[in-house]
């Protein structure tokens, strides 16, 4: 029962979209009708600057981090923690509170995965800087760097279960970006 409550709570934590909260508090408007319409850090950053980007990124990352920290306090296994993170990311991408129209889940994923294993910050940053010169795309470089995470976790934890759980999580994030990726590949 405790695990079910944790997983349900993780999904609902994912539903709190920082960009929506900021827009309602300071602009009295919906982020969905501005820029790309995406309630994420990149869109709000393009519209309102670096400070808005940073606040949104940190707010959304905090959700993933919170799920992992609560799961650890409740002494759940690593697999259960990652299932909680999957549901937080899904909650961000498909929030019931916003008619299933959410962000891409990247900030929530980053906050959660770095809380899960801090060494992964090095993998993400290194992977991004290795891939970026070839792609010249933040999106493709970031997603490419994320693909290194399952292998790294498999090596660190000696667990194929964790690796495949992370593969599922990264596929969810890639699918959330599928429309943007299709546009990018059509342009090249």
From TrEMBL:
GO terms for molecular function: acyl-phosphate glycerol-3-phosphate acyltransferase activity. Keywords: Acyltransferase, Cell membrane, Lipid biosynthesis, Lipid metabolism, Membrane, Phospholipid biosynthesis, Phospholipid metabolism, Transferase, Transmembrane, Transmembrane helix. It is an enzyme of class 2 (transferase). One of its GO terms (cellular component) is plasma membrane. It is found in: Cell membrane. It catalyses: an acyl phosphate + sn-glycerol 3-phosphate = a 1-acyl-sn-glycero-3-phosphate + phosphate. Pathway: Lipid metabolism; phospholipid metabolism. The chain crosses the membrane at residues 6-26, 52-73, 79-97, 109-132, 164-182. GO terms for biological process: phospholipid biosynthetic process. Probably interacts with PlsX. Catalyzes the transfer of an acyl group from acyl-phosphate (acyl-PO(4)) to glycerol-3-phosphate (G3P) to form lysophosphatidic acid (LPA). This enzyme utilizes acyl-phosphate as fatty acyl donor, but not acyl-CoA or acyl-ACP. PANTHER family: GLYCEROL-3-PHOSPHATE ACYLTRANSFERASE-RELATED, INNER MEMBRANE PROTEIN YGIH. Belongs to the PlsY family. HAMAP family: PlsY. This is Glycerol-3-phosphate acyltransferase. It comes from Cytobacillus depressus.
């Amino acid at each position: 029962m405790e695990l079910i409550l944790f997983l349900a709570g993780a999904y609902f934590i994912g539903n709190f979209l920082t960009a929506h909260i900021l827009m309602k508090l300071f602009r009295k408007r919906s982020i969905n009708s501005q820029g790309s319409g995406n309630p994420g850090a990149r869109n709000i950053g393009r519209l309102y600057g670096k400070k808005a980007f940073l606040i949104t990124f940190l707010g959304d990352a905090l959700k993933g981090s919170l799920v992992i920290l609560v799961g650890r306090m409740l002494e759940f296994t690593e697999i259960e923690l990652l299932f909680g993170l999957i549901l937080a990311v899904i909650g961000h991408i498909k929030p019931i509170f916003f008619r299933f129209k959410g962000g891409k889940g990247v900030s929530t994923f980053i906050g959660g995965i770095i809380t899960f294993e801090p060494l992964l910050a090095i993998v993400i940053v290194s992977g991004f800087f290795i891939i970026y010169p070839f792609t010249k795309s933040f999106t493709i470089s970031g997603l490419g760097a994320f693909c290194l995470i399952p292998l790294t976790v498999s090596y660190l934890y000696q667990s194929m279960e964790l690796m495949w759980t992370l593969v599922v999580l990264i596929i969810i994030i890639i699918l959330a970006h599928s429309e943007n990726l299709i546009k990018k590949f059509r342009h090249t």
